[in-house]
Design a protein that fits this description.
The chain has 446 residues and is α/β, with parallel strands linked by helices. The chain is built from 13 helices and 15 strands.
Amino acid sequence: MGLLPRPPPRRLRGTDPPVSELLARHRAVLPDWLALYYDEPIELTHGEGRHVWDAEGRRYLDFFGGILTTMTAHALPEVTEAVSEQAARLVHSSTLYLNRPMIDLAERIARLSGIPDARVFFTTSGTEANDTALLLATAYRRSNQIIAMRNSYHGRSFSAVGITGNSGWSPTSYSPLQTLWAHGAVRHRGPYAHLDDSEFIEGGVADLRDLLGQARGQVAALIAEPVQGVGGFTSPPDGLYAAFREVLAERGILWITDEVQTGWGRTGDHFWGWQAHDRAGPPDLLTFAKGIGNGMSIGGVVARAEIMNVIDTNSLSTFGGSPVTMAAGLANLTYLLQHDLQGNARRVGGLLRERLRAGTAGMAHVREVRGRGLMLGVELVEPGTDRADPARASAVLEAARSAGLLLGKGGGHDTSVLRVAPPLSLTIAEAEEGGDLLLSALRATA
């Protein structure tokens, strides 16, 4: 997986104010709604490989990777060297000038996307990427109607929260879009949970046709995460979105695949999440972010040229396509492909999933261990019921942190799913170690 450097020396205690003082400053100057993990939040100071250290010098195995963003490894030499070399030459120029690293990365992503005659536009985040995709789709179709999936999450901008089906992350009902909600993104909850996969898909398609019958005028696009991220790593049976695509194509409705969390091989089986639903061909638009920059701020949209070029006014991006972030993306993508991290996610992720399933068998508070590749969810419930148990999820998060393991949380109506998404270079030994730490935390909170 490549030689990683030793972590930089940690700061000596006493050279900086204590974390408690930093937390007080955080609360005094930043918004109340800015989420922090843990009863006693931690300050991360440096990382190496799949590990990070906090300000007190404690080491953690990182099973969340900065919300699926540290895709390859912490302090990956190839990426840090590329950033340093580019920063020494030129940090910023904007899209008003030719930008070789941006063109190089765009060419590679266009080829990998599977979209014919593809064009790529770079942004600084997944939220902005989805915003751009919505702009393109509504302009192309001359409609502000969007179909989104229940339990979805697409970002924190005004337009993105309007199509977010997860109420815990949608702070307002106001929206520039008219959103129509479709069933099908959650396999084992809801009205179709009792059906087999083929019946589930048939039910979802029937619901979509009925939904389209209720729409006034033409719908612009369906946007969907192949695996819902914030929603708790839920997904439909393979092929659902291909069946949806066939219905959409009858009406010229576009398909936007939100690959902010599922892209770049994280699911193991596929490079993009949409490829589990490829019977009806590639999507019309694809959004990406997070992992491609390995921590650097990169997002973007891939679309067919006729869709991307629908904008008939002046436009640019001040920070999207920055020479420094593009250099990081190129180095990171090269490392990912050369070291077959998709294959590693499939192999190591499969071992970790089965280890967790075997270890949680008989645990009354674990409803399901699900996911694919290194994108795994452990859903918790109140024992003997099907009710979500967010308090227990928080308790497991705390117990795991105390043992040296960092996890994420997610879920639908209540945040009761533990999210496991380590860097894709995770080793078998680290997967076994982290799996055992997670199982111990689950037993301690039973």
